[in-house]
Amino acid sequence: MDAFIQQIPKAELHVHVEGTLEPELMLALSRRNGVALPYASVEQIRAAYEFDNLQSFLDLYYAGMAVLRTSQDFHDLTLAYLQRSAAQGTRHVEMFFDPQAHTERGVPLEVVMDGIESGLDAGRDQHGISSMLILCFLRHLSAESAMEILEHARPHRDRIAAVGLDSSELGHPPSKFQKVFDRARDMGLPSVAHAGEEGPAAYITEALDLLRVARVDHGVRCLDDDALVARLVESRMPLTVCPMSNVKLRVFDTMDDHNLRAMLERGLCVTINSDDPAYFGGYAADNLAAAQRALDLSRAQVIELTRNSFEASFLGASDKARLLAELDGWVAAQPAD
Ligand code: HPA
Ligand code: ZN
After folding, report:
1. Which among 169, 251, 238 is positioned nearest to 208, based on CA atoms?
2. What is the edge-to-edge ordering of all strands in the sheet holding 10-16?
3. What percentage of the chain exceeds 90 in pLDDT?
4. What is the DSSP letter of 333?
5. What integer pLDDT is reported at residue 200 of this predicted model?
6. What is the per-residue pLDDT across 150-173, written as a single tens digit (0 to 9) for each?
7. Is the CB of 245 inside a 6 Å radius of any atom of ligand 1?
């Protein structure tokens, strides 16, 4: 089963490029850019990655990304992620980035976007992975700040596939950003939002009703609300679940306690993703393998999860059909269990 999971063609729909910064590259960039870090070695960095909740992770996540300064840095970061993902069967990526976390430090939006984009182009050429970019607003900052970055991104509208919402969830409900998402929709941009990771099921309902999202990121708290589950099943709303992240951030105590299998059994359109793989210890296939093992997922459920990942993507109909055909062909060529 492990080789099957490593190689099965898959899409990753929930990964923050800043969360792919492995300790080795963090140290190399701190030297290259003369940015001091409170760590002297890779071991010290890894040892710091013990989290009690989302905020304790975010504090290190924002501190770590201080080493990212030039387009070359963002290019190197993006391409290193795609290389690791290609080795785990990833065929398509929809990548989040947090522009406010960089513009606030004086790194211009264009520097960030140019670097990520050239990394994505190189990943397409070298590894055959297709990709899209999702611009995320930081929900701990104001709606005015989000609106400002959206307007700043307007000339680059065609380089962005969607907008998203991330960072500290509790106390920052989707309703805070309704006007920003209205504006993004007027620009022709679809949306996604982190909701129901640490926050309540009601935040998922707000994301649907007020932000009109096309996907819910995490969404694991939906099982607290039966009417919401029925609505999500009926509309086949995709939920981009990140099992290793959820355990690292104590959303669930252990992988055995994760509700992913229950979500699948309720008929929800679940996908499996890595979120911040450098911080949580695993890429897309690692997440699928960890969940499969702990929850004893069947081969049919593994196939369902990867099929969902393509169906839930922002790809057009013909690209989706091509990747789904690749998936079906790959599965048909595997020996039976
Ligand atoms: N939740 C919220 N914000 C984030 C996350 C997450 O899991 N990862 C990076 N930013
Ligand atoms: Zn996330």
Report:
1. 238
2. 10-16, 90-97, 130-138, 162-166
3. 99
4. T
5. 98
6. 999 999 999 999 999 999 999 999
7. yes
Distance CA 16, CA 134 (A): 9
- Establish whether residue 172 lines the binding site of ligand 1, counting it when its CB lies within 6 angstroms of any ligand atom: no
How many residues are listed for the chain in this entry?
337
Cβ 285 under 6 angstroms from ligand 1: no
Ligand nearest to the Cα of 192, by number: 2
Task: Say yes or no: CB of residue 69 within 6 Å of ligand 1.
Answer: no
Distance CA 109, CA 289 (A): 36
Asked if residue 188 lies in contact with residue 73, where contact means CB atoms within 8 angstroms, the answer is no
Question: Which is catalytic among the residues 12, 94, 169, 197?
Answer: 197
Q: Is the domain defined by 2-332 classed in CATH 3.20.20.140? A: yes
Residue having the nearest C-alpha atom to atom 3 of ligand 1:
167
State whether the beta carbon of 217 lies less than 6 angstroms from ligand 1.
no
Q: Could you give the CA distance from residue 62 to residue 49 in angstroms, rounded to a whole number?
A: 13
Ligand 1 centroid to residue 286 C-alpha, Å: 18
* 197: annotated active-site residue: yes
Residue 1: what pLDDT? 87
Residue whose CA is closest, atom 4 of ligand 1?
Answer: 167
Where along the chain do its domains lie? 2-332
**Which atom of ligand 1 sits closest to the CA of residue 197?**
1
Nearest to 314 by CA among 223, 200, 176, 215: 215
Q: Could you please report the per-residue DSSP string of 24-56? A: HHHHHHHHHHT---S-SSHHHHHHT---SSHHH
How remote is the CA of residue 134 from the centroid of ligand 2, in Å? Answer: 12
**Local confidence band at 337 (pLDDT 50, 70, 90 cut-offs):** confident
- pTM for the model stands at 0.98
